[in-house]
Amino acid sequence: KDRVQVEKSAQKQWEDKQLNNAVQGSDYDTIKVEGSEEYEFVFDEQAFIEFSTEDGDSLSPGSNEEVALTELESRLEKETARLKSIHETRKSLPVYQYRDDLLNAVKEHQIMIVVGETGSGKTTQLPQYLVEDGYTQHGKLQVACTQPRRVAATSVATRVADEMGVMLGKEVGYSIRFEDKTTPGTTFLKYMTDGMLLREFMIDPELTNYACIMIDEAHERTLATDILLGLLKDILPHRKDLKLIISSATMNAVKFSEFFYGAPIFNVPGRRFPVDIHYTLQPEANYINAAITTVFQIHTTQSVPGDILVFLTGQEEIESAQQSIEEIAHVLGDKIRPLIIAPIYANLPQDQQSKIFQRTPEGCRKVVLATNIAETSLTINGINFVIDPGFVKENSYVAASGMSQLLTVPCSRASVDQRAGRAGRVGPGKCFRLFTKWSYFHELEPLPKPEILRVNLSQVVLLLMSMGIRDLVNFPLLDKPSIPTLSKALENLYVLGALNSKGAITRLGHIMCDFPCEPQFGKVMHTAATHEKCKGVLEEAVTIVAMLHETSSVLVNSRQDANKSGIVGQVQSDHMLYLEIFNAWKDMDYSRSWCLDHKVQYKTMLRVRNIRDQLWRCCEKLGLAALNEAALDAGNPLQDVEARLTRSFIAGFPGNIAQLGSSGYRTMGRQTGGLTVNIHPSSVVFQMFRKESKKPTKHLLYQRLVLTSKEYMRDCIPIPRENWLHDMLPHLFAKGSK
Ligand code: CDP
Ligand code: MG
């Protein structure tokens, strides 16, 4: 083989590839031949090969050069095949048939609602069609597609970048909180969480950079999606050139159309095979065990190949189910065919997410353990069996008591029907519901309750007010929150100091808005930098806030007993534990091996570090870092760091304080008289009060309430002195209050 011949062949394959799917600037790795560093073959975008040999151009058979060329050729072949198959797959999706009709409809109407079966190609294809149709004006403008979930935004962006043959983060990117994988000026197709678009509204209320916005998964009715629809309704009349596509599962479509003055509904008929529904005869007491049993029943009795999708409510359930299934499979050994367990939940590190999309090898069966995320936002191919316990974890807020709880509640009928549909994409499927038929017809609500009707609205109210929207009652919304919920939100913001007594947003309120996190955390950081009795601990506060954003996945096994395997010395609160873990890691130069040794998730810690850096930059921009610095300069080493931090958190979370009574801790809801709550066993405070017989403090601050078998407080910090409450929250706690 000589050089010319190889070049020709490469050129030819390159051209074929261009034909199959226009690939611009696809970057090939340098091919290194084992045992030889010298010969590097680079296939670059000009489509020729550069190579060097010691003795000229001719290659002797069996030489390193020849091996490298063969490898190069086989890689090219594979790449061409891959691109061909992507192209075919794109053409085979149900939306493809309607491509022209869809584009015509977009041309004609400013607002359109697209309804279609999950997996029909709405999320991955529609934005690409818009790009292909020239809406971005050669990359000058952007097309955005919002997702309620981070995992969906990242995974779809990865897929689409792949389909378009570009690098993720360049032409196609994603933007989720604390992670911006886009390149300004280059990215023209952007997948993002609905919350991120909401933030962009704050910076640019006219969304001038965008040509088209697709609000995807609108039927999920997340808080951010609902607010976005309201804001868009506001600006569309004077942004005539901005196109809005709302895409939704069938439920709710009419409601969206009515909201937007009767906007047309475009239906993409999907293919769907029949799904047999099976119910249990009795209610199941333990749905996780029931789900695991069902997995093995299916695996051992159903001869048809086909993967299993199990809907669970969260990471902990998924981890525990995965462990049980693996143990049972291990015991059964080669009596059963191999099972591949693939978990998927919001906090799953990105490199592990791809497992759910990988083709199941012949003779094996894949079991996908998923949260609600697999209900509509992610399409997993090859599923024939769905196991549905019928539960979902939902945030729920009771305005009267001012309390937010994460509750495991029964799904709606619309949701369980969506879930069942996941079994019928590749062929006839089966869905095993772990509840009774009676329950389906008589107990389940018809539709899920929109988030806006069940969450604390403080953050959103503050955001709207910072954008100058004063008349909250008349702000256009699909479902209006009740007046008591709104007034409670205003009251909370007043207590935090974000609003003044006239209801106008304060300087502190604006600062809280500028932080990319809940206003309460903004208040904590502001207090840690500026309050007379706290200042000087901003850096520590930022670290803790960053850790609190990821606590559920810091430790390798979230169920592991959390005195957290002697990572750090004695600490008095979870907050201090998080601080110590981070600092210990930082002292070891952020090393990977330290994480391995201490069973801490390295990837999570990298995310924490990234969040921390961003929060810190925000503190610098807002001038808080300088104020903090001044406090540090003033004296000797800072005294009472822990007390200062505890005080800062009290200032930020006045609603999260529990008081010790005769029957344990109770929340301090003023109207309800409180709810009995327990310290979660994984908390270091639990260990401290129980095992070391240290006297429980009269007050305790918690970050989250979780309801499982009991009401649990997670991430706790004891308040050793009562007067701290008065110091930090004088309007709520009288001096010497009991
Ligand atoms: O949005 P919709 O549910 O209508 O479909 P989609 O998410 O655009 O998915 C279209 C196709 O792309 C499905 O067959 C998915 O399995 C596939 N896909 C994939 O293979 N990997 C992803 N990360 C996302 C989608
Ligand atoms: Mg979709």
Describe the model.
The protein contains 25 helices and 24 strands. It is globular. The chain is α/β, with parallel strands linked by helices. Residues 18-56 and 558-563 have low confidence and may be disordered. The strands form five sheets. The protein has an eight-stranded mixed beta sheet with strand order 7-6-8-5-9-10-4-11, sandwiched between helices. The chain has a six-stranded parallel beta sheet with strand order 12-19-16-13-15-14, with helices on both faces. The protein has a five-stranded mixed beta barrel with strand order 20-21-22-24-23. α4 (122-132) crosses α5. The structure holds cytidine-5'-diphosphate and magnesium ion. The site of magnesium ion has 4 residues, from α4. This is RNA helicase. It catalyses: ATP + H2O = ADP + phosphate + H(+). It is found in: Nucleus. GO terms for molecular function: ATP binding; hydrolase activity; RNA binding; RNA helicase activity.
Q: Provide a count of the helices.
A: 25
Broad shape:
globular
Residue stretches low in confidence (pLDDT < 50, at least 5 long) are 18-56, 558-563
Alpha carbon gyration radius? 28 Å
Q: Which sequence of strands runs across the widest sheet?
A: 7-6-8-5-9-10-4-11
| Largest beta-sheet details | 8 strands, mixed
Query: What is the CA-CA span between the terminal residues?
Result: 90 Å
Distinct compounds present = cytidine-5'-diphosphate, magnesium ion
Task: State which percent range the strand residues make up.
Answer: 15-25%
- What is the residue-averaged pLDDT? 85
Number of extended strands:
24
* Alpha-beta content class: alpha/beta
Helix content: 25-40%
Keywords: ATP-binding, Hydrolase, mRNA processing, mRNA splicing, Nucleotide-binding, Nucleus
Protein name: RNA helicase
GO molecular function, one term: RNA binding
Catalytic activity: ATP + H2O = ADP + phosphate + H(+)
